[in-house]
Every structure is written in structure tokens, then in C-alpha cells.
Specification:
The complex is a heterodimer of chains A (126) and B (464).
Chain A lengths: L6 H4 L3 H16 L10 H18 L8 H21 L2 H19 L7 H9 L3
Chain B lengths: L1 E8 L5 E4 L1 H11 L1 E10 L4 E6 L3 H14 L25 H9 L3 E7 L2 E2 L6 E6 L5 E12 L12 H14 L3 H12 L5 H9 L8 H26 L3 E2 L2 E2 L1 H5 L1 H22 L2 H24 L7 H26 L4 H25 L11 H4 L5 H8 L4 H9 L4 H13 L2 H19 L9 H13 L3
Antiparallel strand pairs in B: 1-8, 2-7, 3-5, 3-8, 4-7, 5-6, 9-10
Helix pairs in contact in B: 4-5, 4-7, 5-9, 6-7, 6-11, 7-9, 7-10, 7-11, 9-10, 10-11, 11-12, 12-17, 12-18, 14-15, 14-17, 15-16, 17-18
The chains are: A mainly alpha (126), B alpha+beta (464).
């Protein structure tokens, strides 16, 4: 299954595409099949951006250097905009709760739950 | 100068509505110490009077009005066959218009020591002459304010609602994230962004203070979340006079707390259930993050140039000002023209605010250490102008190109202060505020225009 990602949605993050973002994106395509065709690429990309963003930031591990942290922040912000544009309210809320759960665990010194599992569950919140 | 509308219902054809206590409350809420409160009736059958609130005397006044302009008399105004453009529900009220001519349509009351100046027996009345009706008075206040007037115009209790909502949200969060955020929130800050949300959320027909407070609190949490990451990136040790989260608890905690509140704020906004609002704030957040990347990248060519500065500041600071203004207006279902005018107002105000903030770095009386921006190589318009200056520019550029110890920072500060850079920035910020105010001229703001104007001026007043 190949779904085209809009250029605008990758703006300034193009270099991440070959660095794990495309793999993460593909891993969410099946989970978004229940959504309107037009929303599918944006939702899969939103999930992939959270996954890559959290990893880049080093959440729950060794924190990234400032420039990399900022790229991670942009991934999360872009994901938020994609969800605002394409996701139902319940999915927006579920994504936010997933990040809250990971961030809370990291702040508490606990093991951070697996991002992909949390986000696949969030995509089920339709 | 700040302003708003006072609204009330009348119940009788002729009625003296005592507004004294409401006006006293407005003066207190505005924090006006010395000045004038102007009242203007927005109706042709509603007058204003200052007199004694004694029931028998009020009946005397009513009797006097009846004798001077009897309700049963003949008035040409009531001869609808001779008039043009008569509305279907046009009332027979020639007597009421004539009575209004005997009263004032406006009043100015003095304020001293934070109180209305009224004699022992004086009360301020709106005089209904053709009730029952829904009535409005325009109110403006100008003078000296002991508090920032920006809380005024928000409606009763709006700042308190914001405080309560922020406290409530922090109360339900787990301590490892709530404690650092609580310290930051309680340390103060100007809270301009949530104020803008609450103000603009009162403009449209769907004004709901609780929803506005929820959105305002989310915007403030989002802003603070970005500051927590910024402080790690900038290696800042203090913010609002307290250690930063990164300095006090380490970068790992700072990144986690920032992420938690980024997510929580976006969730709170999503839960409000207005897609336009959600998109507006999400776009602002994206602009902030993108410009942070530019900001750090530009430090290699420090101090940069005017165009780069504007591009970064539009994203880093102005995007959330614009988003706050637009989202509040969207929440209250304002017209698209109003939303866009407020978005432009917020954008211009945000840039002016950042310029004013840059100037604070050169002000010994600001309470912040002078030269901190220079030391941290933060983008700063006064430095850009000083570096372009024919006289001091070469030395400024040479110093900024090397390592910056105390002596170098002091010398750069001295050079900037001796040039016309500070005045140029001050003038530019003022011009932006003027442009922001002009954006408000063409749309209906339900009486909040003076408050928004005052807020805009306060953004640069701290540097004048």
C-alpha cells in the first residue's frame, strides 16, 4: 500500500524520511485504513512524527543536543497540526494522552512505554 | 485609555437605574487611581443623571418629566403617516425623546485615590424613558492605573478564572511534572497570551467565560512548555528570578516536563471541541518550533540581520500572540473579518513586544541582568542595528565574533547604548503598535477596542 505524503507535511523534516520516518510511516498505514482515504496519509505521518520526534529528543534516555531536540519538537508540533486538520477529536485526545503518559514516565524515572504500541492504540480511538 | 460596555435591563416605562455600585466596581477592577470615567448613553430614550437615590424624590423627578413632556400629549414624531422609514414595531414615544432632551446623554465622573468622586448624597443613574428595554452604555476610563489595566474589559472575574483553571490543571497532574511547572507558573510572567484569549473570546456572540478560561490556561501552559525547552537550548540558568527546570532538575526532566505540557495543552484545546481553534493553535506551535530552529542556526552569523530577525520573531513570539487573538475570537464565533483583523493585531503586537523585550536587556532598571542576551547570543534587534552602525559597528562586530566575557559584554552594551540603535528599535516597536491599533479600526469589537489599544501600548510602554 503506497500513500503519498504531501510535501508541505514534510517541510524542513525531509532528511528524516530516509532516517526512520518512512519506516515508521509505513508501519502505521494499516492502522489508518479505517479512516477516510484523504486523512490516511496525514494520520500515519502524524503517528510517525511522534515516534521519531520522541526518539530524537531522547525522552526517557539521554537527552539530545539542542539542535536535535528542536527537530524533535518540530516533529511533535507538525504531528499536532496534522491531527488538528485530519483526526477526529477522540484521536487528537488519545495522541495527546499517549505523549503525556510517556513524558510522565520519563519525568518519574520509570521505563517509558513503547511509543508505537501507544500510538496504535490511539489510532483505534476513532 | 480602556473601555467597555455596561449592559442592563429595565422593567418600567420610566425608571431610575442606580449604577453607582457597578461603576465603583469597574474603577476598582481597572485599578484606576486617578483619572476620569466617561459614560455615554447609546440610546435616544435613555438619559444619565447624578442625583440623590431617595424613592420619593425619584417620584418627583418622574412627575416633573411627565409635566414637561406628558406621555398623553400629541407629538409629531408619533404621526407615522408623515414619517419616512418607519419600522414595523416603531413605538409611540415622542414624549420619551423629548424627556431625554432634558437630561444629559453623557457624563464624566472623576476618580481620586481609586474611588469615584461623589458627594454624600450623589448617585449615578441611567434614566429609562421608554422601557422596558435592553440598554447599553459606553464606558471609557483614562488616567493613572496602579495595576496593569489589561485585566479590565475581560468581564467579571476573568483573571481569577484563569488562575483557578491553571491551579486546577496543575492539581490533577502527577507531581514529577506538576511541581516544576507550578514553580514556573507561580513565578509570575505577564500572561499576555491568555489575556488576549480571554479578551477576544468576549467579542463574538458566543461569549462563554469558562471555555475562554480553559483555552487561555491551555495557551499559557503551552507557552510555558516551550520556555522550558528554550531554557535548556539556551543554557539559561534563571527565568522569572528562579532557576530554570533544566538548571534545577536537569535536562532530562526539562524535556519530559516540556513534552508533558505540550501534550496536555493540545489535549485541553482538542477537548474544547472547536476544530478552527485547535488548528489555529497547532499552526502557531509549529511556527514557534520552526523559528526556534532558525534562531539557533542564526547564532553562527550572530547578530544576524533585520530580515532574519523579523522572520524568527514572527514565529518565535508573534505566532502565539496572533494565535491567541484569533483562537479567542473563533471560540466566541466572531466574524471571519474580525478573526483576521485580530490575528494581524496579534502578529504586530507580538513583534513589538519582542522588540521591547530586547530593549530590556540594555536597561539597568529592568531588574534583569544587563547584557544577558549578548552573553547568551540571543537574537536582538538593538545589537543588529548597532552592528550596522557606521561609528560603533566595526567594534561591535569584532567583539561579538570572539568569546564574550564580562569585559566584552560590558563594552558591547556601552557601544549599543551610545549609538542610536535603542531609539531606532523603540521607534520601530511604536510604529508596529500603531499598525496593530489600526487593524482594530474596521471591525466591531463590542466595546473592547480601547482595552486592546491599551494592551498594545503597554507592550512598549515598559521601554519608554
Amino acid at each position: 500500500m503506497a500513500i503519498q505524503v504531501a510535501d508541505r507535511d514534510l517541510e524542513r523534516l525531509e532528511s528524516l524520511w530516509e532516517d526512520g520516518l518512512s519506516e515508521a510511516y509505513r508501519s502505521y498505514l494499516e492502522a489508518v485504513e479505517v479512516y477516510e482515504p484523504a486523512a490516511q496519509p496525514r494520520l500515519a505521518l502524524a503517528a510517525a512524527l511522534v515516534e521519531v520526534g520522541i526518539r530524537l529528543q531522547g525522552l526517557g534516555g539521554r537527552v539530545a543536543a539542542p539542535p536535535t531536540l528542536l527537530i524533535g519538537d518540530l516533529c511533535l508540533a507538525r504531528s499536532s497540526r496534522l491531527l488538528a486538520d485530519a483526526a477526529p477529536q477522540s484521536v487528537q485526545v488519545a495522541f495527546a494522552r499517549a505523549i503525556e503518559e510517556m513524558a510522565w514516565a520519563a519525568a518519574s524515572g520509570r521505563a517509558v512505554p513503547k511509543t508505537r504500541e501507544l500510538l496504535l492504540r490511539a489510532l483505534d480511538a476513532k | 485609555m480602556i473601555g467597555k460596555r455596561l449592559r442592563f435591563e429595565t422593567k418600567h416605562p420610566t425608571e431610575f437605574v442606580d449604577l453607582t455600585d457597578r461603576l465603583r466596581d469597574e474603577v476598582r477592577r481597572a485599578g484606576m487611581r486617578m483619572g476620569r470615567l466617561h459614560l455615554q448613553s447609546l440610546h435616544t430614550t435613555l438619559g444619565l443623571a447624578v442625583n440623590e437615590n431617595e424613592p420619593l424624590l425619584l417620584r418627583d423627578f418622574e412627575g416633573l418629566l411627565e409635566r414637561l413632556a406628558p406621555s398623553g400629549a400629541s407629538y409629531e414624531h408619533d404621526d407615522f403617516e408623515r414619517r419616512f422609514d418607519v419600522a414595523m414595531n416603531e413605538p409611540v414615544n415622542g414624549h420619551a425623546h423629548c424627556r431625554q432632551l432634558l437630561l444629559a446623554g453623557f457624563a464624566t465622573l472623576l476618580v481620586e485615590d481609586g474611588e469615584l468622586v461623589l458627594g454624600r448624597w450623589q448617585s449615578v443613574f441611567a434614566v429609562e424613558l421608554d422601557g422596558p428595554r435592553h440598554r447599553e452604555l459606553a464606558v471609557q476610563m483614562d488616567g493613572d492605573f496602579s495595576l496593569s489595566p489589561s485585566g479590565w474589559g475581560l468581564g467579571s472575574g476573568a483573571p481569577e478564572l484563569l488562575d483557578l483553571e491553571l491551579s486546577r490543571q496543575l492539581l490533577v497532574d502527577p507531581e514529577p511534572v506538576a511541581a516544576p511547572m507550578r514553580r514556573l507558573v507561580e513565578a509570575g510572567g505577564k500572561r499576555l497570551r491568555p489575556k488576549l484569549v480571554q479578551l477576544t473570546a468576549g467579542i463574538g456572540p458566543r461569549s462563554e467565560p469558562l471555555r475562554a478560561a480553559a483555552l487561555a490556561a491551555a495557551v499559557e501552559l503551552l507557552h510555558n512548555a516551550t520556555l522550558i525547552h528554550d531554557d535548556y537550548v539556551d543554557e539559561s540558568t534563571h527565568r522569572r528570578g528562579r532557576p530554570t527546570v533544566a538548571a534545577a532538575e536537569g535536562p532530562e526532566r526539562a524535556v519530559a516536563v516540556g513534552d508533558y505540557y505540550f501534550a496536555k495543552a493540545t489535549r485541553l484545546i482538542a477537548e474544547i471541541g472547536n476544530r478552527s481553534v485547535t488548528s489555529t493553535i497547532a499552526e502557531a506551535l509549529e511556527a514557534i518550533c520552526a523559528s526556534q530552529i532558525d534562531d539557533v542556526a542564526l547564532r553562527g552569523a550572530y547578530p544576524g540581520d533585520h530580515d532574519s530577525y523579523l522572520r524568527v520573531v514572527r514565529g518565535k513570539t508573534a505566532a502565539l500572540f496572533a494565535g491567541a487573538c484569533a483562537s479567542g475570537a473563533l471560540l466566541s464565533e466572531s466574524t471571519p473579518e474580525t478573526v483576521e483583523a485580530l490575528r494581524r493585531y496579534g502578529d504586530l503586537l507580538g513583534v513589538a513586544f519582542q522588540m521591547a523585550d530586547d530593549l530590556v536587556d540594555f536597561s539597568p532598571s529592568s531588574g534583569k541582568p544587563v547584557g544577558l542576551d549578548i552573553r547568551q547570543r540571543v537574537l536582538s534587534l538593538p545589537l543588529i542595528y548597532a552592528a550596522e552602525d557606521r561609528a560603533v559597528g566595526p567594534e561591535v562586530r569584532r567583539l561579538l565574533a570572539g568569546s564574550l566575557g564580562d569585559a566584552e559584554v560590558d563594552r558591547v552594551t556601552e557601544l549599543v547604548t551610545s549609538s542610536d540603535a535603542l531609539q531606532r528599535v523603540r521607534d520601530e516597536a511604536q510604529a508596529l503598535v500603531d499598525a496593530a491599533v489600526r487593524e482594530l479600526e474596521t471591525v466591531d469589537l463590542d466595546g473592547l477596542r480601547p482595552t486592546l489599544i491599551s494592551l498594545a501600548h503597554s507592550a512598549v510602554d515598559r521601554i519608554s
